Amino acid sequence: MAKRWRTWISDRFGLRRVYEGTLNRRVAKSSWYYGDGATLTFLLGVLVVTGMFMSLTYTPSPDGAYESIRFITEKQVLGWFVRGLHYWAAGMMVVMLFFHLFRQILVGGYKFPREGTWLIGVILFFAIILMSFTGYLLRWDERSIYALKVAQHMFSRLPWIGESVVVFIQGGTEPGATTLTRLYAVHVIFVPVLLGLFVIWHIYLVIIHGVTSQEERNQPIYTASQQRQLYRAQARSREKGENFFPMTVFKSGLMATIVFAIVLTLTLTLGPQRLYPEADLTTISRPIEEWWFYWYSGLIALLPNTIAPWFVVIFPIVLFIILILLPFIDRSPWRGFKKRLWPPIVVGICVIGILYLTDLRRRSPWTGWPDSEPPPVPAGVVLSPEAEQGRQLFAQYGCNSCHPISGHGRKVAVDFGQIERRLSQDYIRDYILQPPEGIAMPGYRGRMSAQDLERIVEFVLVAQTFPRSQ
What we know:
Elements: H1 2-12, H2 15-22, E1 26-28, H3 36-55, H4 65-74, H5 79-106, H6 115-137, H7 142-156, H8 162-170, H9 177-209, H10 214-218, H11 224-236, E2 241-243, H12 244-270, H13 294-302, H14 308-329, H15 342-363, H16 385-396, H17 425-433, H18 450-463
Antiparallel strand pairs: 1-2
C-alpha cells in the first residue's frame, strides 16, 4: 500500500523526473571544498527561515522598528537565538561569497561553456551584498542611520541622476517613515524574489554544465564541445566520476555542516549584534559598520580626501564591469592556475589586502574611541588645582578620545605636548567653542560651561610645556 502511494505521488507530482535530473546523475569527482556553492544556498535558506520568523514581530516604521528589535532580542521566546542566527548567517554568507568568487577565478569557472553561470553568479554576488547592507538598516539605530547616510552619499555622486536616486530611496527630501518602508520592501520582497529566481537559474546551469573538473584544469581546452566531451568522459569513468547522490551531496553537506556549526557556535557564545542607541535624525554619529564591511571602510580611510568620496561610488561599478567582462577577456585555453599565473597573484593580493584592511579597521587608529582615563602627568610635573580639574574634564568631555598628550593616548588629532608653536589662551578657547570648518571636531559652544571651558584651557596651556616623548 505504501509503495503504491509513493509511486502515485512520484508520478503525479513529477518527483521521479526531478530526482533523475538533479540527484541521480553522474558527475566528475570534486573535493569537499567545492561545496561552497551548496553552503551558500543553505545559508540563504537559514536567512529566509529566520527572517520569516522575525518579520512576524518586526514593525517597519521609525516609531516601532527599534523597539520591535529590542522585543525580539530581549523578550520574545528564543528571539535572541533567531536574530543571532540570522546575523551570523548573514556575515558568514558574505565570507563564503568571497571564497566562492576567488575559487572560481582560480579554477577558471567563468570560461566556456560556463559564461552564463558566471554572469548570473555576478548578479547574485551583488544582490547578496545588497541584502547584507539593507538588513542592518532595518534596526533603525545610530549605525543604521550612519550607513544610510553613507549610501545616500554614494548615490548622490552618480552623474545626472544622483539626487533623483536619493529622493527615490528616501521617499522624499529627508529620510523618514517612507525610507524605512522602502528599505523593508527591498530587503524582504524585491531582492529575495530576485535572489530566488537567479539562484534557481544558477543551479540549473550548474546541473547542465557541471563544475570545473580536475581533467579540465590539467590540459588546454579550445572549444565548448571539447570541454563537454572531456567532462562527460570523466563523469562516466569509474575512477574519475561519481554519483551526485550520495557522494557529491555528502561532500557538499559536509562543508555546509562545518560552516553552520561555526554560525551556531557564534550565535550561542556571542549572541546577536548589540543595538546602538535608537536612531536620531537630528544628531550626527559615526558608529562603526558591520564587520564584513570593515575592509572596504579601511580601504577608503587610507585614500586621500580628494579621492575617497568618488572612490566609494566608482569602485563597485568598476568591480561589476570587470567581473562581467572577465569571461570575454581571459580567452586562454588553460583553466588550472598552474598555467595561469595572474589568478593566484590577484587572488592572493585580494585575500591579504582584505585581511589587512579588516584588521586595520578593527583597530581604527584614525578613530577617536571613548577613553574615560585622563591623560597621565609626566613625572616631576605638578599641576595647579585648576589645571588638574581641566585634566579630569579633558577626559570627561572626550577630548582624549582624539588628542594625545606627549605621545600618550589615541593619535587621531594634534598632540598638545608635541606642538612646535605654543597656542595662546584665546586661540584654544575659540577653537574649542567653534572649530574651523572642515575639522572633524564638534564645537562645544552651548555644551560646556564657562568654568569647565577655562579649566580645560588651563590644562592645555600646561600640557604644551610637558617634556616631549622620544
